[in-house]
Amino acid sequence: MTGVRGAHTDSATAPSRTGRTACAARIASIARTVRTFRTSRTDRARRFTPVLTAAVVLTATAVLAGCASGTAEAPPEASAAPGTVRTADPAPSGTLAPAGRTPQGTLLVADFGGDTVTFVDPGKDGSGRGGGPIASVEVGTAPYGLVVGEDGRAWVATAEGVAVVDTRQRTRLALIPYETETGPVTTGEYRGGGMGIALAPDGRHVYVGVNVPGGNGTVEVIDTATREVTGVAPVGRRPFDVDVSPDGREVYATNHDSFDVTAVDADTLRTRRMEVAPYGTEGGLGSWLKPHYAVVRPQDGTLLLPFEGERLAVLDPRSGKVTIERMTADTHQHGAALAPDGTLLVVGTGPIGSADEGPSLTVRAPGGTERIVPLEGPHEDVAVSADGRTAYVTGGFTRDGYWNGITVVDLDNLDKLEDLDNPNNEKNKPIRLSAGNRPLGIAIL
Questions:
Q1: Cα–Cα distance between 358 and 398 in angstroms, integer?
Q2: In this structure, are residues 437 and 428 in contact, taking their beta carbons and an 8 Å threshold?
Q3: What backbone torsions phi and psi does residue 46 show, to the nearest 5 degrees?
C-alpha cells in the first residue's frame, strides 16, 4: 500500500499534504453555473447542448443539435413549459427512438449543468457504437442523483425538490418540494437540495439526502404513491450518497463533510452515526480524505466505500466496525456500483496531487483482484448493464474539468483496455458518447 495521504478537500480550501503539492490549484477552480432565463422558481428552460439549432416554436418541443463534448456550461435558451421534451438530432446510426417511446436499455443521466435529465441511446448492443442523446426533459435546477423504479418512474434529486419523470413517455409528472429549508436555490458543487437518492426494495418509498449549506443535512422520505414527504431524519454534512439495506429496514446516508455514514431506521427514523475515516479526520472541512459514494453488498449487507484508490472501507452497519482492504488505482475516487456477479466498479476522478495517477475505472473482482482502465478526463458516477458486460461512466464530475458525455467500457475485454497509452491500441479505446450537460447521476432503463 502507498503511504498515508495528507489533507484533501472538496471544500473551498485545503491544507498542504505530505508528498502532494497540487491541492491548492485544484481547489481554486470550482464550477458555478450561471442562469439568466427563468420562468418561475421551479420551472426553467436551458439547453442541454452547446449550440442552439432552432428557435422555440408554438409546440413544447425544441429541436436541438446533438450533444457536444466539452467543459463549458451550455448557455440558456428561450423559456419552455415544464416537462418539455427536447428531441436531439438523430445519431448517424438512425437507431434512436421517436419521441414518446423509450426502449429498454436506454441510459438516463442527470444534467447537473442544466435543469434536465437526458435520455441516451447506448448504441448497438449497448456498446456505444452509433449511440447518442435522444431527448431531454425539464426537471428542476441542477439535478444530481437519480433512481428508477420497476414502474418506469425516475426520481431525480434537484436543488428545488424531487422530480418524478415518466421515462416511457419522457414527461415530468411532478416536482416534490423539500421539507428541509435549504436556502436560496443555487447551482454548483455546494448548492443546497437533493444529492444522493435511493428507492426502497418494495418501491413504496424514496429516500433523498438533502444538503443544507453550512450545516448538517437530512434524509427525507417520500411516499411514492402519494408523492408526499412523510418523514425527515437528521444526518451528517453533505449527504453525497444514499443507499438502502437489502431488507429495506435501514437507509444509509454517506456524509462527505462529516466523515461518516448515518443509519436511519426506515420505520422509526431513529438515527445512529458511524464514523468512516480510514485516514483520520484531521483537517476537518479542509480534508480531501472523505467518503463520497457507497454500495451495499447484498450477501452480507456491508457497505463498501472506496478511498483514494488506496483503501476500501468495509463498514458493518450492525456493529459500526470498519475494516480496510487494499486498493491499487491511486487516484481520487467518487462513484461506485456493483455488477450482478459482485464485481465492484469505482470511478477514479484523477489526481489531487502531483504523485497521483490519472482518471480511471477500477474493476474489482469479489476476491479483491483489480483491473484498472484508464479514462480520458474526470468522471463522476457509473452504472453497469444487467448482464455485467458493460459499464457506463458519466463525465460530469462535481468539480471543474468535466465533459458532457459518457464513457462506455467493455468489461469483457479488459485486457485490451489496460495499455491505452500505446498508440497501436487506439482502436480499443473506450467509446465516448455525447450526453447532456455535465451528467452526474446515471441509470439504465
A1: 16
A2: no
A3: -140, 155
Instruction: Evaluate whether 278 touches 2 at the Cβ level (below 8 Å).
Output: no
Strand bridging mode 382-384 / 322-326: unpaired
pLDDT in tens, 60-110: 333 333 333 333 333 333 334 455 556 554 333 333 444 557 899 999 999
Among 50-59, 102-111, 191-200, 256-265, whose mean pLDDT is lowest?
50-59
Asked if residue 133 lies in contact with residue 436, where contact means CB atoms within 8 angstroms, the answer is: yes
Q: Which three cell numbers stand for residue 78?
A: 428561450
Grid cell in block for residue 352: 489531487
DSSP element (H, E) containing 24: helix 23-28
Question: What distance in Å separates the CA atoms of residue 434 and residue 445, rounded to the nearest whole number?
Answer: 18
Taking the CB of residue 342, how many other CB atoms lie within 10 A of it? 14
Nearest Cα neighbor of 385 from 118, 128, 161 is: 128
What is residue 423's three-state secondary structure? helix
Give how far the C-alpha of residue 20 lies from the chain's centroid of Cα atoms, to the nearest Å: 27
Residues whose CB is less than 8 angstroms from the CB of residue 397 and which lie 6 or more positions away in sequence, other chains included: 334, 349, 378, 379, 380, 438, 440
AA letter at 179 = E
C-alpha cell at 197: 437518492
Q: How many residues does the chain have?
A: 445
Residue given cell 503539492 in the structure block: 21
**Amino acid residing at 115:** D
285-337 pLDDT per residue, tens: 888 899 999 999 999 999 999 999 999 999 999 999 999 999 999 999 999 99
Rounded to 5 degrees, φ, ψ at 426 are -55, -40
Model pTM? 0.79
Q: Is 25 exposed, middle or buried (0-12, 13-18, 19+ CB in 10 A)?
A: exposed
Cα within 13 Å of Cα(395), Cβ side = 26
**Which of the 8 DSSP states describes residue 3?**
P
